[in-house]
Fold these 4 entries.
Entry 1:
Amino acid sequence: MGLLSNDAFLSQLNQLYEKSKEAGTVYVTMKRGIIRNKKSPKPGPDAEFPCLVRAVCGKNGKKKISTLVMPSDTEKFQDAYSNIIKVHMDSLKKKERVKKAKKTQEKTQEKTQEKTQERPQGA
């Protein structure tokens, strides 16, 4: 799992999404990267850090790729990454959701029915 160039990472990521379209999952993580040598001092408050981006295909992590995005390349990388995500959004499954309004309406109807049944007829 060596570091790939940004373009190579994006093309590999595209291939991972294609492979996992039928079955499988791709996990992508991003975190601040630190480039430090033993002799270099600690970075100051104005220092810019690269972003480490990793992608793993499947739960077992059979295929792992990673890249280091420098601050100067962040905007270009983010645009390309978002395009890849948009292209592969069609393989997501939609969940059936019950609207909250229907649930609350049903609950209020049930409560009013219970109250009308509890009231004595002669009072």
Note: The first strand starts at residue 3 and ends at 4.
Entry 2:
Amino acid sequence: MACPSILRSSTSSFHGQFPIAASPPRLSFGNPRNVSVVKAAEVVLVEKSESEKVSRLKTAYLERIIPKLKEEFSYQNIHEVPKVEKIVVNCGIGDAQQNAKGLEAAMRDLALITGQRPVKTRAKASLAQFKIREGQPLGIAVTLRGNVMYAFLDRLINLGFPRTRDFQGLNPNSFDGNGNYGVGIKEQSVFPEIKFDLGKGRGMDVCIKTTAKTDKEAQTLLALMGMPFRETGPVTEVRKKKLKSHHFSRKGTGRK
């Protein structure tokens, strides 16, 4: 059996010939927001102070809008005051199955607009008349909450709508009866992140879900946030033109 002193001397001589390599630095997995993402020779720094900074629209809601809503609707509890719960932005792409590059470009543009990467929406059932199979990608959608939601809503109100061509205000009758409001945008180029393209424009639908119980409360909430609703006058009944007998004759159609 080998003597312990001999083993110690052989071990020391072995480490003398082959020095021990330094252990690799330990990576800290703390807050994932303090990361540096390197992609395509560009560095994107996400500062903790910027990610946790409260939006100015949320500050206005907490400081000025809540007292006005409590005074107008006589809420007894602050939790009864309606608020914006989430915003769902979706974009339909008909040729997503044949045009994979177009789908990726649409996802990249929507991520630039909303600040959050969207997900693909797929067909739940097969429809032969539309040549749609189950599981086929049909569009993209993204759900926004928290500070990202308030930041997008602020940019939509102060940048998106004013840059819309021939904008005459939002329709106040687009509520669904449960306090939720939906609006469609024809061109994504109204946002400064998207470059104007002379080709086929791509639009998107924005659904704002609130905790309001009635449409009136939801409209007051969004109006105080700055939503430019169109002022509607008295509703006038549109009289339909009465068709006469010559409209149904064969002479009018040019048939013999």
Note: Residues 56-73 form the longest helix (18 residues).
Entry 3:
Amino acid sequence: MSIIQQHTSASLSDAWRTINIDALDPDSSQNFDTSTLHPPLPEVGEADVRQLNAQVRQLLRGGDAEGALRGCLESPVYNASDAAKDQHMQTVVEVLQSIKASEMTPMLQRIYGSEGGSELLDVLMKYLYKGMSGGSSAGLRTPTRNLTPQTTGFSQIGSRPGVPNESTGTAMSVLLSWHEKVVDVAGLGSIERCMTDWRKV
């Protein structure tokens, strides 16, 4: 008699597959709160964001575009209300739009070559993706009450406050240009780090 014939149908059942072995493993994520793996982020209030944005705009008015960009990227708004995040996103887009295309690559290379430069470009990539995602939270569109009908039947949406005839496509092309330059300087790893980071701007 073979060994296979000695086993009954009960001993060859698939019941063992219904046991959740993760519940028995002390190192399993089911046995502890995975949110404790992330360090707590300091909460940023809207007043703090307004103050930061004012400092960045002051640098921009003073002609220090690189300092303004660094100011935006060194203090990303992670743990804040959606309104505060939108305010900061608008400031980042304003800074990016104020920088000439010929200055992009040298500026990114200087930032990348500095201490912590890789992390700064990763933060910039997060803001670029947020801006390209569109929607009202990206800071690229004005409220719908500012829509003006066009002869083509489409609506013109201003991308920056106070610039009613600038299309969203213009702002999008600026973000795409920056995306291309960031990838050229920091490589494709910047995209991967941006997509896998649990901190969202």
Note: The radius of gyration is 25 Å.
Entry 4:
Amino acid sequence: MPATPTQQLVTDLGLQRHPEGGYFRQTDIQEETVPTPFADGSKRPLSTSIFYLLSYDNPAGVIHMNKSVTYHILHQGRAEYTLITPGSPPKIERHVMGANAAAGEKRQLIVGTGVWKMSQLLAEDIKAAGDKELVNCLITEVVVPGFQWEDHKFLTREGLNELFKDVEDREKAVSQYSRYLKA
């Protein structure tokens, strides 16, 4: 099945710009609530879900952290997810969401609590673009317990410096990731 063009996805799915970068639309909020361990037992929906789209014109998200577990399920395209688990030094993982399992790509990615993450289209996909409208990645994100903005944070420059304080080449690491901070 050929890729669906970006503008058609935005229109057909009713997507809007996302504060993290890309486009999104909330697709579900479960009515059942559960106490969350992340906000003194406050109630949250059992789960929430969104469509999330990266495109040629909006190819990367910013570094952020959700307190809840997030399940990412691929619909089309490819994107690289960078996960940074705080520690001394921090653990950095990269995963490509895509359909080529033989190349190590994943159709599903689970990001646990307390992990910084960001996503971006692959540079080689952007460079090889014949039709820019076909360079995109559409996923569903399911957040458990459900997403609330107070359970979310963006990485700041101060936080980035702190995160990499024990890294041997700290300046290089900070430089590499600073472009993915929310302006």
Note: The helical segments are 6-13, 123-127, 157-163, 170-178.
